[in-house]
């Protein structure tokens, strides 16, 4: 196995893949993933990806993001994300990503805490559409090597400068690999919870390793609980009932069959109301009705949700489903600047593993795919410009 690369990227979700695609082909890149190539939360994203649909929406999009984040967001990061969103969507379209459209015009949907529809989507499998297309591009690149079922167990550093990683291969053997730059794109922490929408192998490894090396971390207690996952007593990942279902008109009922809340509250507030109701009713769930959705065929708009619920014994066109909150997203992470640099030289963090402050205390729906892509691209640019600066100095 080759022992030296220009860049090593840990993680093959949207953040890792987009970072790799934004690096030039003359750089030798190694990507590793703890699991299979399609086993990342990026593939699970249902609702969509936000975009600044026109200049007039800037103030409102900015305010919605800040309000959802309890105004604890880093304003500069929010501005960069929103201002970069159109460029990112153009990049995705160029890579062949397909979003819902009508007569050549993109269609927008709405989710909780958004004051207007501004979310692009592909049925209810937006993450699979985006990540699958990015993965296909990466697999075509000769300069990128991907190793599946290979886990980073530590980083190598000297005087606060990162120069490699220790990895555990599929056969259990440990080895070291060096690189000029290392990018941590290891996703969230849901695997540490009993009830989570995340893949169980996403256990916040990068955070543990960062902590061990005194790399700055931020907002470690900012954890998002998604208000609506399908209630189940089976072990394993909880199935998400996307916020866009409520955005399109689904409603929540208590035990008596009465609505008890505004279904489009920000996630943290809605979760609180659902927990309160569950306690009052003494039930382990509340009910969600998709029969109230008007004007669209839910089996075509939400085919994945429709089929999954059917497999679990519920026909959402005819009956309510039991839903319960579950761990969903991590707003905190490895502290990074606007170019995704950590507090250690030559070490970057992107996607859910990182914290650039965009989401504040609570993430606005459909901002995370966008945030992952925007700041992964910025990390790639910074890696390049740093390399040229270092070359000039030497
Ligand atoms: C069910 C669900 C629905 C969602 N819906 C939306 C949505 O509609 N819109 C939106 O914007 N966001 C949504 N999100 C959030 C969004 O999908 C994620 O925040 C985003 O995809 C994170 O991307 P990532 O690249 O940072 O991490 P991931 O896609 O989770 O990828 C992490 C990668 O790191 C690898 N990894 C982890 N640890 C190690 C290790 N030690 N060694 C090697 N590899 C490692 C994993 O194997 C994986 O390849 C949703 C999330 C879930 C779970």
Could you characterize the architecture of this molecule?
The protein has 394 residues and is an alpha/beta fold. The protein has 2 domains: 210 residues, FAD/NAD(P)-binding domain; 101 residues, Succinate dehydrogenase/fumarate reductase flavoprotein, catalytic domain (Flavocytochrome C3, Chain A, domain 1, Alpha-Beta Complex). The chain is 30% helix and 22% strand. It contains 10 helices and 18 strands. The strands form 5 sheets. Strands 1, 2, 7, 8, 9, 10 and 17 form a 7-stranded mixed sheet that branches. Helix 1 runs parallel beside helix 10 and helix 2 packs across helix 3. It is globular. The two termini are 29 Å apart. The mean pLDDT is 96. Bound molecules: flavin-adenine dinucleotide (FAD). Its cofactor is FAD. This is L-aspartate oxidase. Keywords: FAD, Flavoprotein, Oxidoreductase, Pyridine nucleotide biosynthesis. InterPro entries: FAD-dep_OxRdtase_2_FAD-bd (IPR003953), FAD/NAD-bd_sf (IPR036188), NadB (IPR005288), Succ_DH/fumarate_Rdtase_cat_sf (IPR027477).
Strand and helix map with partners:
Elements: E1 4-10, H1 14-21, E2 29-32, E3 49-50, H2 58-68, H3 75-94, E4 101-102, E5 105-106, E6 119-120, H4 126-139, E7 144-147, E8 151-158, E9 161-168, E10 174-184, H5 205-212, E11 217-218, E12 223-230, H6 243-247, E13 251-253, H7 267-281, E14 286-289, H8 298-301, H9 303-311, E15 321-330, E16 333-335, E17 347-349, E18 354-355, H10 368-393
Parallel strand pairs: 1-2, 1-10, 2-7, 10-17, 16-18
Antiparallel strand pairs: 3-6, 4-5, 8-9, 9-10, 11-16, 12-15, 13-14, 14-15
Family: Belongs to the FAD-dependent oxidoreductase 2 family. NadB subfamily.
Pfam families: FAD_binding_2
Pathway: Cofactor biosynthesis; NAD(+) biosynthesis; iminoaspartate from L-aspartate (oxidase route): step 1/1
